[in-house]
């Protein structure tokens, strides 16, 4: 079917939600629609006439070009999933389709590529499948960066990992990221909360049982260790593991075998172990409630996850992340949080860490469906910090508070980027760190009043 | 410039790779007061950005010049003390020439040129090349290298290859 000659062709292309660009035979961009501008973050006037690889920055651009393949083979490529890198440094998953363009004589005069932003789809899929990776951990603070630097190497090793951190710091997210970066990523990820089950049930859950092991054991039941074969088992709240099971776990770690309940021979264990706790294991060892030998076996690679109050610069990023996530999941159009709300969040101590921040925003989404989240949309629990309210209103305060306000507002304006904040304020990175630390201390004192 | 600098170009064939993660080769160049000359290359079979970051650190690179670079990788490199000049495009010789003349901004990728001053387009702030430490070191390098004539580069390049 031919395109009607009297229809405004460009208006039609501009109206569609998918990005569209065309190239000539020298791979120079000849057309770039509005959706392409939006998805790539590059204005059409800068894209036109440029080589497509200098504009699109896709995972195929250097040596695996879909358009080149189409033109060379006179074929069509449909719905290929790749990623592009936007000028803001974000990797954006897209689905591309490509085809050659021919003139009236049937000669190839270039190519056309359409692409669809899969960010929201990917976000929903990850939420459903809980398939989180390294890239899904939101934050650029120094505290997190130290972990990011070693996480890939740690993941690729077979070493047992012990994740320490307060409740809500994302221990399971990190555990999943370690699994998904490891050579066992194709295998299962099995999470067990050792504190959530009674002792007897926990033993059969972890190690399984054989038929006849107890009255109701009609048949064999595989344990979580067996289910995690070839993959990773995540033992959360390991500090709550009862003494009897500590011995069995120690055997797994030492000899890579375990015995199901009612079993007569050891079963080999092929699961990597990641353990986590928010308790102080050293104290538990000193108190005699946690075995020292097990502690040393678990403590091969220890990652201490920082509480949110020690990485306040990540709060704006996390807020944006959760707003985007809830907009997608709840089909809302919340633009962001007001300055007052951001100031309040930046001052809050977050004893519940990232989970608390997520809960605050989830609550706000109930009351706010579009525009900006305002103070009245927040739960009462975050409001008692009087000093924070004064700061949020932007009036008065001690010199220290005024400095804090300036730093936190600059941090917010720069979306948590510390170097940009330093440039704006004309201070060094060390000074910023010291000021943030003082802000945190002041906030803690205020909260205690 | 008193100290030697090792500059790495993340390449695909004879140009900078459009995306750092896609580069199939790192080319190294030594920059000192005598100019700039080739100092080896490294083929990159692994596409893993972490492997690439490790390789750059292991080779003692002081400055990385590359195309599109995701924020996380850039931060890791900058935090490790590497001066990073991302979002640059062009052929290898063109890039080296611009580097030695201190005019590498002229090779900024589309979407990165208006980054100074009127950053109204989403993401403009990021692709401003050389964040943080990288920017400071890069600026120092440029200033010193710019004192040398482009001819020094060409002579060294031809001789070195």
From TrEMBL, chain A:
Annotated ranges, domain PAS: 5-57
GO MF annotations, alphabetized: ATP binding; sequence-specific DNA binding
Domain called Sigma-54 factor interaction: residue spans: 137-366
Domain PAC: 78-130
GO process terms (BP): regulation of DNA-templated transcription
Domain of life: Bacteria
CDD domains referenced in this protein's UniProt entry, alphabetically: AAA, PAS
Pfam families membership: AAA_lid_14 (PF25601), HTH_8 (PF02954), PAS_9 (PF13426), Sigma54_activat (PF00158)
Membrane-traversing stretches: none
Protein name stated in the entry: PAS domain-containing protein
UniProt keyword list: ATP-binding, DNA-binding, Nucleotide-binding, Transcription, Transcription regulation
UniProtKB/TrEMBL annotation, chain B:
Domain of life where this protein originates: Bacteria
SUPFAM superfamilies, alphabetized: Nitrogenase accessory factor-like (SSF53146)
InterPro entries on file: Di-Nase_FeMo-co_biosynth, DiNase_FeMo-co_biosyn_sf
Pfam families in alphabetical order: Nitro_FeMo-Co
Domain Dinitrogenase iron-molybdenum cofactor biosynthesis span(s) in chain numbering: 14-100
Protein name: Dinitrogenase iron-molybdenum cofactor biosynthesis protein
Species the sequence originates in: Pseudodesulfovibrio senegalensis
